[in-house]
Specification:
Length: 778
C-alpha cells in the first residue's frame, strides 16, 4: 500500500504522527535528512530507525543478491574509467568533452531505464555518432552484467517482483519517506514494488502535492490514497524585512537570532565565515582540493609510459612524507590506485596521453574523501535552504545576497521529441516543481517561526526567482542604518594627467559614474581583477557563452542538436585546455542553459524577419575629437528592421529602464550613435535594441521605435520586457549633446574628484574602503 501524507507544516505531522504511522522505518535521501528526522521524532518521544535510501538499498541488496552479482557493481569513479577505456578504444585520442557529454547522457538515460531497447529508442532522437557510442556503452554493460547505481535499483526491483524471498528476509512492515525532493524513475519503480509487500507513506507538503503534474516524480507514484494531517491552530508572526548594503552583511546582522539561514541551496564554508558571531554549523569541506591541485599541476602535461608516472608518484610520496604533507600523500595514493585500475582495463592503457590523464584526474577526484567540518560552539545555528524544516518557535534571520550562488530552479534541456519520449517512461525535472518546493519550505518556515529577511539592496531587481518567491509574502523592507566609524586617512596620490586619445562605452560610463574611479581605473590602472589560472571566472564564462553563440550562428542556419553539441564541446575544450577545472559538468549545464535558447531564438528571428546577423561588429574609427572604439555583440540588418543586442549573463546590470532612458547607462546609446556615424543605421528605419539576459530570455530588456516590429522580435524571446520610443531620433540627439559635454569635461579634467552620480555607485566600487567620499549607504 502506498499513500501520501500531506500537511500544511511538517510540525503538524510530528505532533500527531501516531495517527498516521505506528513504528515505521524512516527512509531519507541523505544523512542530513536522516539526522533531522531522527531528532524530530525524538522530540515527540519516538525512537525510530532513520536510514538513508542508500543504506536501505545496501542492506536489501546484501540480503537478496548473491556475492558474485555484488562483485559486478561499479561506482561512478570505476564507471568513468571503464567507459573511458571503451571510448579510447573506439574513438582514440578525441575531444574529451565529447566523452563527458556521452557519459552524462548515458547515465541520465539509465536513470529512466536500463533496458537496451528503451535506450536505443530514445537514442534515435540524438546525433548518430553520439548514439552509436552510447549504445556500445549500454551493450557492454549488459553483456558483462556490470551494475551501476541504476542497475542495482533495477535488480532489486526484479528480485522483489519475482517473489520467493528468503524466509529470514528483513523487509520492514511499514516505511515512511521523509525529506525527498526528487526521485529517479528507477527509485520510483522500486517503491511501487515495495508498496505491494509493505505499507509506504510519503510525507509531502500539500502545496507541492496540489501543484505537481504527471511529469513530476510525485505524480508518477500515481496513488489516490491521500491522508491529510489536520492543521493545528497557530498564529504566524509578521515578516520583517531589512535591506543591507552590498558587502556589509556583517555590520547589518544583529546578534538576536536563534538561527541564520543563508540564501543558498547548499552552504559553502566561506559563506559561513561571513557571519560575525559564534554559531553552530556542520559543513562539508573539500580538504583535499588544494593538495590535489598541487599534485596534479605536476602531472597534467605528462605523456608516456604509465609505469614511469607511477614511479614518479612513489618518489613524490617519499618527498611529501619527509615534509609531512599528508594530504598530498593521500592524493598520490588515490591517483596511483586509479592508474593501476586504468592499466588493468586494457593493454592499450600502458601508454598515457592527454585523454587518459583527464580520465584519471576525474576518477581520482571522485574517490577523494569528503569530510564535514562541525563547530558545536555558539548558541545559534547556521543553516542553508535545504535545512529549513524542523525549526519551530525560533527567531530566524533569512539572508538573501549576491555573495551566494544564484538561486536557480533546475529544468531539463531536452528537445521536444526527447522530452515526449522520456516523459512516457519516467519523471522529468521541471523548474516550476522545484519553485513550488522552495515556496512550500518558505511557507512552513514563516508559519512556524519569527522570520526576519535581510535582503541585499537592489538584489530583487535581478534575482527573478527570489522575487517570485517573496512576492507570496507581505512585507516592507527597511534600510539598515550602519553606524560605522568615519575614515580619517585616505589614499590620495598626486594626480597626473595623460592626454585622452580614444574612448569606449565602458570608459565613458566609468567617468559618468565617478571621475575618481575613472582616474584609478584608466590612468593609474589600479582596478584589480584576479585571474585564476585553474578556474573560470564570470568574465571567462561570458566569453565562452558569447563564442558558442557566435560560432554556431556563423555556421548554421537551422538548429541541429548534434551540431550544437559539437560547437559547445569544441569551444569548451579550447577554453579549458589550460585549466584544471574540476566542475566541468556544472559548466556544461550552465553553458547549455545560457546558449541553446538564444541560439534557437536568433535563428528564428533571422529566418522570419530576413535578417543578416553579425557578431562582435566593431566600430573603431577616428572621430572629430578622438578615436571611438568598441564592438556590438550582435548586429542584424534587413529590409524590415535593424537589430542591436548586447548579451548579459544576468539582468543585474540592466535592471532599470529608467537608468537607460535617462542616459545614466550609456552603452546602448553609445552603440547606436557610433553605428549611425558609420551609416550602418539610418533615418527612421525600425530598429530593435537592448539587452539579452542569457539566464532568462523573458527577463531581457528591449527598446524600439516601432511597436509592431518590437512585438515580432520579442515574440521569439518569451515575452521580454519592452519599451517603445517613438521619438528615438530626439533621444539620440539628446544623448549626443550629453556625450559631447562629457567628453569636453573629460578632456579638460585635471582633478578627478570623488563625485559619484549616485551613492549606489560606491557600493560596487573597488575604492569603497579607501575613498574620501565613503559611499556607505545609511
Amino acid at each position: 500500500m502506498l499513500k501520501y501524507i500531506q500537511y500544511q507544516t511538517s510540525e503538524d505531522f510530528f505532533e500527531q504522527y501516531s495517527h498516521f504511522v505506528s513504528s515505521p522505518l524512516v527512509i531519507c535521501p541523505n544523512p542530513q535528512k536522516a539526522d533531522e528526522a531522527r531528532s524530530r521524532f525524538e522530540r515527540v518521544g519516538a525512537s525510530l530507525d532513520c536510514l538513508t535510501i542508500s543504506k536501505f538499498m545496501q542492506d536489501q541488496i546484501g540480503e537478496l543478491l548473491d556475492e558474485e552479482t555484488l562483485g559486478l557493481r561499479k561506482n561512478k569513479s570505476a564507471l568513468t574509467l571503464f567507459l573511458g577505456a571503451i571510448w579510447k578504444k573506439l574513438k582514440g585520442e578525441t575531444n574529451y568533452m565529447e566523452f563527458v557529454q556521452a557519459f552524462n547522457i548515458f547515465t541520465e538515460l539509465r536513470s529512466y531505464s536500463v533496458e537496451t531497447s528503451v535506450i536505443e529508442g530514445v537514442l534515435e532522437l540524438y546525433d548518430d555518432s553520439l548514439a552509436e557510442i552510447i549504445i556500445v556503452f549500454q551493450k557492454v554493460m549488459t553483456d558483462l552484467d556490470i551494475i551501476d547505481e541504476h542497475g542495482a535499483y533495477n535488480l532489486l526491483t526484479q528480485r522483489i517482483r519475482e517473489g520467493d524471498l528468503p524466509v529470514d528476509h528483513n523487509l520492514p512492515e511499514e516505511v515512511l519517506l521523509y525529506g525527498f525532493e526528487t526521485m529517479t524513475a528507477s527509485q520510483l519503480d522500486l517503491l511501487k514494488i515495495l508498496s505491494t509487500r509493505t505499507k509506504i507513506g510519503l510525507l509531502i507538503h500539500e502545496h507541492l502535492l496540489e501543484t505537481s503534474t504527471t511529469m513530476d516524480w510525485v505524480g508518477w507514484l500515481k496513488t489516490d490514497l491521500v491522508e491529510s494531517v489536520p492543521a493545528l491552530k497557530r498564529e504566524p508572526s509578521p515578516v520583517k524585512a531589512f535591506e543591507y548594503s552590498p558587502g556589509f552583511l556583517a555590520h547589518s546582522l544583529p546578534r538576536e537570532h536563534d538561527v541564520v539561514i543563508l540564501g543558498a541551496k547548499k552552504n559553502q564554508y566561506h559563506y559561513i565565515q561571513e557571519i560575525p558571531y559564534a554559531f553552530q554549523y556542520k559543513q562539508s569541506v573539500d580538504l583535499f582540493s588544494h593538495a590535489f591541485k598541487t599534485v596534479w599541476r605536476e602531472l597534467e602535461e605528462y605523456t608516456g609510459p604509465i609505469e614511469r608516472l607511477k614511479n614518479y608518484l612513489i618518489e613524490k610520496i617519499s618527498e611529501f612524507s619527509t615534509s609531512q604533507k599528508y594530504f598530498e600523500i593521500k592524493v598520490c595514493l588515490v591517483i596511483l590506485n586509479k592508474l593501476s585500475e586504468w592499466e588493468e582495463i586494457s593493454d592499450e592503457n600502458q601508454s598515457l596521453g592527454h585523454f587518459d590523464l583527464k580520465i584519471i584526474r576525474d576518477a581520482s577526484e571522485l574517490d577523494l574523501p569528503r569530510l564535514n567540518k562541525f563547530d558545536p560552539n555558539g548558541e545559534g545555528v547556521i543553516r542553508d535552504l535545504s535545512q529549513t524544516e524542523g525549526l519551530t518557535q525560533k527567531k530566524v534571520a533569512l539572508v538573501i545576497g549576491s555573495q551566494y550562488q544564484r538561486l536557480k530552479f533546475s529544468d531539463h534541456n531536452y528537445t521536444d521529441s526527447i522530452e515526449a519520449y522520456l516523459a512516457a517512461i519516467g519523471p522529468l525535472r521541471r523548474s516550476d516543481f522545484e519553485f513550488n518546493l522552495y515556496l512550500a519550505k518558505l511557507k512552513e518556515l514563516i508559519t512556524l517561526n519569527q522570520v526576519d529577511l535581510f535582503i541585499e539592496q537592489g538584489l530583487l531587481k535581478s534575482e527573478k526567482q527570489w522575487k517570485r518567491l517573496l512576492d507570496h509574502f507581505d512585507f516592507d523592507a527597511k534600510p539598515v542604518t550602519l553606524n560605522l566609524k568615519s575614515k580619517t586617512s585616505y589614499y590620495e596620490p598626486e594626480v597626473r594627467v595623460t592626454p585622452l586619445e580614444r574612448v569606449s562605452s565602458s570608459r565613458l560610463q566609468v567617468y559618468t559614474d565617478c571621475p575618481k574611479k575613472y582616474y584609478f581605473s584608466y590612468i593609474e590602472k589600479l582596478e584589480p581583477r584576479i585571474h585564476l589560472k585553474e578556474h573560470l571566472d564570470s568574465m571567462e564564462l561570458g566569453q565562452i557563452q558569447h563564442k558558442i553563440i557566435e560560432v554556431y550562428l556563423s555556421n548554421y542556419k537551422e538548429f541541429d542538436e548534434a551540431a550544437y553539441l559539437k560547437t559547445l564541446n569544441e569551444t569548451l575544450e579550447s577554453f579549458l585546455e589550460k585549466k584544471n577545472q574540476v566542475q566541468i559538468e556544472g559548466i556544461m549545464v550552465e553553458t547549455r542553459a545560457y546558449t541553446q535558447k538564444i541560439i534557437s531564438a536568433l535563428l528564428e528571428i533571422s529566418k522570419d524577419l530576413q535578417l543578416k546577423i553579425e557578431f562582435e561588429r566593431d566600430f573603431n574609427f577616428q572621430g572629430e575629437k578622438l578615436q571611438y572604439i568598441g564592438s556590438v555583440d550582435c548586429f542584424g540588418t534587413g529590409t524590415l528592421l535593424d537589430l542591436v543586442l548586447d548579451f548579459k549573463r544576468s539582468g543585474f546590470s540592466f535592471s532599470s529602464q529608467t537608468n537607460i532612458l535617462e542616459f545614466e547607462k550609456n552603452q546602448l546609446w553609445f552603440y547606436l550613435s557610433r553605428l549611425k556615424d558609420l551609416g550602418l543605421i539610418v533615418g527612421e528605419k525600425p530598429i530593435v535594441f537592448g539587452y539579452i539576459d542569457l539566464s532568462d530570455l523573458s527577463n531581457s530588456l528591449l527598446f524600439s521605435n516601432d511597436k509592431e516590429v518590437l512585438s515580432l522580435v520579442t515574440g521569439h524571446l518569451g515575452g521580454s520586457r519592452t519599451k517603445v520610443i517613438e521619438d528615438l531620433a530626439s533621444y539620440l540627439n539628446d544623448y549626443r549633446e550629453l556625450e559631447d559635454n562629457l567628453l569636453d569635461e573629460l578632456i579638460a579634467q585635471k582633478a578627478f574628484p570623488p563625485s559619484p552620480r549616485d551613492t549606489k555607485v560606491c557600493d560596487f566600487c573597488f575604492l569603497n574602503a579607501t575613498c574620501s567620499r565613503g559611499g556607505l549607504n545609511g
